[in-house]
Amino acid sequence: MEARELLQELCGSLRAVLARVREGEPGEGREPFEPPRFWDALGQAFKETSQEATKLSLAFSRPPLPSAENCRKLSEDVQNAILAVATVYYWLPKGQGTTLRKMVRDATTEVLEGMIQLTETILISPLGSSSQEQLISTGGVWEACEQVSSLPRDNQAAVVSALSAFLGVVKDAVEEMENCSQALVEEQDPYSDIIEDEELGFRGNRDTYWSEADRKLLGSCMGLMKASKACLKKVLSVVKAYGKADSPEQIAQLDDLADIANEISPRLLNWPQY
Question: What is the sign, positive or negative, of the torsion defined by CA atoms of 123, 125, 128, 130?
């Protein structure tokens, strides 16, 4: 079997693993969950995946190309590393928190996607030549694997991270709304930074200036946004200071807070559409 065919098979196998990680749910497991063992294993699996990405990229960066036997070995090593990442992810039970589990799943899928992109980049490039795209893809896998060290270690830390991200979205929305408000006060076009839409016409056929009703509504919207921002800051502060993830009840309460906060930020992010 030629190197290209082996790489195509590898790509298909990686996509299958990615689909299972996206769609599957970790089980509770028969053995008690041991956080230190889990995080050590996940870190090692990510590290080995990074190393295998380097080996794969180097093998196809210059002639001579690896033999069919060596290419098969490279492919198997990559598959084994990726399967190890997916397997360790499945060790994390639901009871540790849905927010934490989502972050670990996102990190896992990012590694898988990076390895798929690297394999596809090698496939579309002339075999035996290192392209800029291949170097970028290899670096993407390294970066995805390195993020394991910054993942939160429990659901309290995961919810703090999620709330911080939501708060950032709300702050951006408030700043954008304030800019619009200032533009209205100065009688400027609040849509001046929106690019003209080729199909709909000038900035999507929006009115150049807001109506009087829009101006009145702006104040109320600003108040709601600032209230959301203040509420999220308070909740974040309380979770940082007093949040715990020592019992199923505490973990569930933290997840509820993250879910509620997640309902706020997308609406504020998309406020110009309303």
Answer: negative
